[in-house]
Structure formats: structure tokens, C-alpha cells
Specification:
428 residues, alpha/beta, Urease, subunit C, domain 1, TIM Barrel, eight-stranded mixed sheet, eight-stranded parallel sheet
């Protein structure tokens, strides 16, 4: 690989507190050699022809903490190859995959298979999760220690919740002893049972059963109460309501934990469902505009740490059904950054806050050396034209499944190039 020189870029790297116009040098080994304002035409070898980015932005490669991949078992929805292509088109270079496959990722042999497939088929960094309980049944714990030794980065039941408080307490104790990260999908099963959208006026109008916000809040309250006694690495996968943000605000002063929010809940509300738009059947559900604003404010105040895509590909036949029969979830990894930039363009959040929640914060929580542009690290980054307008068209999406929640939405900001280990793997 030849050395690569980039100049005249706006570089934003929250991890290293870099926010300046400058350049980037990538060595022959695909590592970052130099970065910042010191890299310019005056300091480069005369024989070299640098690439002038003309003010475009360089961000660290995004780290997406909540991604569902169909492999193994659901390859018709998404596989490692299509996932990595979709991720690269959205500037994502590292993903944390959920264990909800077939079979469930709950033993060492499946992890070995998963890592081999990820290595052979994927162009991005794959960090797999294993389930908290056997077959995500919520009854028997998995072997945290063995799975962690095999390279499992975190434990979660993905779309399911640990309902039993005694079991959750045991899980926390094991996580504390082993230093594991556990991630919880906060939703009380009984309160959310048969629910499809946010409980309220819209649900009544459409004649659909609702999921009350208390179903989320009650689980968060329970887990954080347990966390006061057993201090372990604990992450709430996704928040969706104002009341949940209020709880987070109170508890952050007492105990240490982290939380995330889906870009869907940051950008959309229950009104967007309109007349039964099944592509907006999500978990957690879209809630009120007041809830959405509270989530944005939670990010602004650094109460919420991470933005995730909650990328959950579903085939068209599973979505184009009646609302009650339709599958839950939306694909979103390739629109994650562009949709997040909407919050910058409308003045809701600072650019640095958004990029921090997409890069350095998830990397810090996961304890991985990604999401930054430190000298000596792999050159995982994306080049972004933050003002470029475009329209989301499902036929142009790279993901195998086209179940986007924002079809025909006008966005501002597009990934132009994505590099992994110094290699250009996506070009617009």
C-alpha cells in the first residue's frame, strides 16, 4: 500500500479533542502517521500529490453498538457481506452484532463459526455479542467466562428482556466478577404484551394495542436499583421516553452506567406512523414529540451516551402485512450518520456531540481501540460532505433488506468515502 496524503479537511475527532482544518497521512501499513493542522502542503514531500478534500469532513469510522445480522439462519434478510457493504456506505467501520440468530449465539462453537464468517465475508470490524441466557429463554445464564475468552465483547438477549429480578441479580454478580459488559433491552413483558405502538391517542385512533412508557421505565428502575448493590458494567440499549430520561438524570449522580438511543426515536415520532406504516413498527416504539425532544436534550446534556442504528433487516414480505402481523424493526445502518446530521443542521445538537455519540463513546463503553484517529491506530475513517442533499430511495439502499423507516426523506450530509485499515472500501 502506498502512503496516502489528505489535506484541507475539517477534522473532527472527539476522542483526541481535534476539531480543526488540516490533513491526514496514512502509512504503508494502513496506520495513521500524522493528523491535524500540521499536515499541509508546506510539510509534505514535494514529489507527493496529496488529495485536496476541499473542506469536507473527516470523522473516525462510526461504531454502531446495536446491529442485527441474519447470519447464521436468516441470510435471506442480511449476511456479513451485505451488512459490511451497507455499513461502509454509511461511514460505519465497526459493528456490535446481536445474538438473535438461528441458532442463538450462546455457546463457544457458534462463536467460532461466527468469527470465521465475519472474518471471511466482512470488510468491517465485527464485534459479536452472545446472549445473556441460553437460547435467550430468560431462564439459564450462559457461560460468560468461556464466551468472553473466545472474544465475545458484550452480553445481551437482544430483542428480549431479562424479566426475572433474581436472575438479573445473578447476571450482574457474574458480570462484576468477570468485568463483562451487559446490555439490557428495557421493556417489561407483561406491560408491553401484544402492544404494537406507543400507548396513547394515536394508538386509540388506529385501533392498535399500545405499549406504555412505564413498561420501559419500570425495567430501568429495577435494574438500576439492583446496580446500586452490584456494581458492574451495565448499558441500557435504547431509551424512548421523557420519563426514562428523567430516571437516568436522577440515577447518574448515584451510580455508574451508560445508555443509548436509536436514531429512529431521535428523529421520528408516533405521528409519522400515519395510516398504518408498518415500516415504522419498531421496538421500542416511536413515542410522542415531547419524548423525542427529551431524548435529544438527554444527548445534549450527556445523559445519553450513544446513538445506534438498531439496524434490523426484514424482508418485504414480513413488513407488507397488517400492522399486527408485520415484523418489528427497520434497516438503518447506511442512513445512521446522515439522519444524525439532521440534528446538527436544524440546530438541535452540536456536531461534536453527535460524532462523539457515534464514535468515541461507544468505543469507550466497549473498551475497544476504535472510533478515534490516534496516531499509530488503524486508519478507519470516513470522508463526509455534510451539506450534500440527497433523498432516501429504497432501491438505492445497499442493505439486502430495504425496510427503511425514512423512505423518500430528504437528508443533508452524505458519506463520500470510507476507509478501513487505510484501504478505500467505499466511494460514492
Amino acid at each position: 500500500m502506498k502512503k496516502q496524503y489528505f489535506i484541507n479537511a475539517n477534522i473532527l475527532d472527539p476522542h483526541n479533542s481535534i476539531n480543526e482544518n488540516g490533513g491526514l497521512i496514512i502509512g504503508e501499513d494502513g496506520k495513521i502517521e500524522a493528523i491535524g493542522k500540521k499536515v499541509n502542503t508546506n510539510n509534505l514531500p514535494t514529489r507527493e500529490k496529496p488529495i485536496d478534500l476541499k473542506g469536507k469532513y473527516i470523522f473516525p469510522g462510526l461504531v454502531d453498538m446495536r446491529v442485527f445480522v441474519g447470519e447464521p439462519g436468516y441470510e435471506y434478510k442480511e449476511n456479513f457481506r451485505t451488512l459490511s457493504d451497507a455499513a461502509l456506505s454509511g461511514g460505519v467501520t465497526s459493528v456490535v452484532t446481536m445474538p438473535n440468530t438461528d441458532p442463538i449465539i450462546d455457546n463457544v462453537s457458534i462463536v467460532d463459526f461466527l468469527k470465521r464468517r465475519g472474518r471471511d465475508k466482512s470488510k468491517i470490524n465485527i464485534f459479536p455479542c452472545a446472549s445473556l441466557t441460553k437460547n435467550t429463554g430468560g431462564t439459564n445464564m450462559t457461560e460468560f467466562g468461556l464466551l468472553q475468552k473466545k472474544g465475545i465483547i458484550a452480553f445481551t438477549d437482544g430483542i428480549k428482556t431479562i424479566q426475572n429480578p433474581r436472575l438479573m441479580s445473578r447476571i450482574m454478580n457474574s458480570a462484576k466478577d468477570l468485568g463483562c459488559l451487559i446490555m439490557q433491552h428495557a421493556e417489561d413483558h407483561e406491560l408491553a404484551k401484544n402492544g404494537m405502538i406507543n400507548s396513547g391517542i394515536i394508538a386509540s385512533k388506529l385501533g392498535l394495542s399500545g405499549i406504555p412508557e412505564i413498561a420501559e421505565r419500570i425495567l430501568i428502575e429495577r435494574d438500576l436499583t439492583l446496580l446500586e448493590k452490584v456494581k458492574c458494567r451495565y448499558h441500557i440499549s435504547q431509551l424512548s421516553s421523557q420519563k426514562s430520561v428523567d430516571v437516568i438524570k436522577q440515577r447518574k449522580e448515584i451510580i455508574r452506567f451508560t445508555s443509548g438511543v436509536s436514531i429512529n426515536n431521535l428523529s421520528l415520532n408516533e405521528n409519522d406512523i400515519g395510516d398504518f406504516r408498518t415500516f415504522l413498527k419498531l421496538s421500542p416504539p416511536l413515542r410522542t414529540e415531547e419524548d423525542r425532544v427529551a431524548l435529544v436534550q438527554g444527548l445534549k446534556e450527556e445523559l445519553i451516551d450513544v446513538i445506534v442504528s438498531d439496524h434490523k433487516p426484514e424482508d418485504e414480505e414480513s413488513k407488507r402485512l397488517t400492522f399486527s402481523q408485520a415484523a418489528t424493526g427497520a434497516s438503518g445502518i447506511e442512513t445512521l450518520l446522515s439522519l444524525s446530521l439532521e440534528l446538527y443542521h436544524n440546530g438541535s445538537l452540536k456536531l461534536e456531540t453527535i460524532i462523539k455519540a457515534l464514535t468515541s463513546n461507544p468505543a469507550k463503553i466497549l473498551k475497544i481501540n476504535k472510533g478515534n484517529l490516534s496516531i499509530g491506530n488503524d486508519a478507519d475513517f470516513c470522508i463526509v460532505d455534510i451539506d450534500k442533499p440527497w433523498i432516501v430511495k429504497k432501491e438505492k439502499l445497499v442493505s439486502k433488506s430495504k425496510n427503511t423507516s425514512i423512505e423518500d426523506k430528504k437528508l443533508q450530509g452524505k458519506v463520500v468515502n470510507t476507509f478501513v485499515k487505510g484501504k478505500e472500501l467505499f466511494k460514492l
